[in-house]
């Protein structure tokens, strides 16, 4: 599984429609509206690295109202569960 985080700048008047259209694309698992320099962040999860080319430039970038994107590919995933397990290494139960 390949995960990419896509920063999206959108036409401000069209943010809700852009978010809904991006969320409907196969491979996009979530879309968040955010504050700051970006308008939306999309989480893309695909089986193969090459699939990103289909999802991002062929679909996300072509949604009307998307002005620009910046894609970051995740190397490793850390979750609260993973961090709790890491911090508990070497500790005895109940300590």
UniProtKB/TrEMBL annotation:
Top-level taxon of origin: Bacteria
Domain Transcription regulator AsnC/Lrp ligand binding intervals: 7-77
Gene3D superfamilies tied to this protein: 3.30.70.920
One Pfam entry name: AsnC_trans_reg
Protein name: Lrp/AsnC ligand binding domain-containing protein
């Amino acid at each position: 599984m390949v995960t990419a985080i896509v920063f999206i700048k959108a036409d401000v008047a069209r943010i809700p429609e852009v978010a809904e259209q991006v969320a409907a694309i196969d491979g996009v698992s979530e879309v968040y509206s955010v504050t700051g320099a970006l308008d939306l962040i999309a989480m893309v999860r695909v089986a193969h690295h090459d699939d990103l080319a289909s999802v991002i430039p062929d679909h996300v970038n072509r949604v009307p109202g998307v002005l620009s994107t910046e894609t970051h590919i995740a190397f490793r995933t850390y979750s609260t569960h993973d961090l709790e397990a890491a911090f508990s290494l070497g500790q005895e139960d109940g300590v």
